[in-house]
Amino acid sequence: MGHKPWKITYASDYLDQLYDFAVQLIKKDKAFVCHQTPEEIKRCRAEKIPSPWRDRPIEESLKLFEDMKKGKFDEGAATLRLKMDMNHENTVMRDLIAYRIKYVPHPHIGEKWCIYPSYDYTHCINDSLEDITHSLCTLEFEVRRQSYFWLLEELGIYKPVVWEYGRLNLTNCVLSKRRLIKLVDDKYVSGWDDPRMPTIVGYRRRGFTPEAINTFCEDIGVTRNTTVTIDFEVLENHVREHLNIVCDRFTCFLV
Questions:
Q1: Residue 23, pLDDT score
Q2: Is residue 223 pLDDT above 90, yes or no?
């Protein structure tokens, strides 16, 4: 796309620090090991009912969290939850899950860990550790702003500025990664770079140029409006305009 990042990082680069922060929260009595099932957690959060393990002793949670790390529990048998506010009007603030047990090899670090932090726990801490000035998210994450700052405040670490903006919607295009991955996993397409896919690598194989996509983004701008859908022909028009400038044209006569 013509943009060179200063550095490429992964959330997994910080798993050791994330674990240490979790231990710190347990010692502050701001996190606890819970044995509720996902269905029980969902129901209790909706009904504002605290977990029966919410007030377990700190030392007990520390030991159980260490046992989770050592693989002594089955998947789903225990989670680490943040002790937030079960009566909060924002459901996101009702004792979020910080860690789950997953016996799945990680693409970057292999089988070193069997417990993995949740998005809500990882996102804000990684932003802070990397000294991100502005954390940019789409509007569906706006409800998570309170939990984002709650966690950073409890840990006493740097808080970035958070901005939310409206998602880009294109006519006749599915842009959700959760839906697109199904097309890849179920072999409806050859991969993320299939020319039919609305991805950067897919557009590259289709012949779209970085300059065309960049000028398209500059043209439509940034908005907080979630109901605006851009006609796909607008993007195609930017592609045609740039190809008209950079592509050679030839005339051929058949005899």
A1: 97
A2: no
Query: Which one-letter DSSP state was computed for residue 250?
Result: -
Assess contact for 61 and 32: CB atoms under 8 A: yes
Average predicted confidence (pLDDT) for the chain: 94
In 3D, which of 59, 171, 44 has the Cα closest to residue 97?
A: 44
> 74 by DSSP, 3-state: which?
coil
The angle that helices 145-155 and 15-27 make with each other, rounded to 10 degrees, is 80
Burial of 230 from C-beta contacts in 10 A (0-12 / 13-18 / 19+) = middle
Write the DSSP symbol of residue 216. Answer: H
The CA-atom distances, in angstroms, between 155 and each of 21, 234, 245, 249 are 7, 46, 53, 61
Residue 172: count of CB within 10 angstroms of its CB: 8
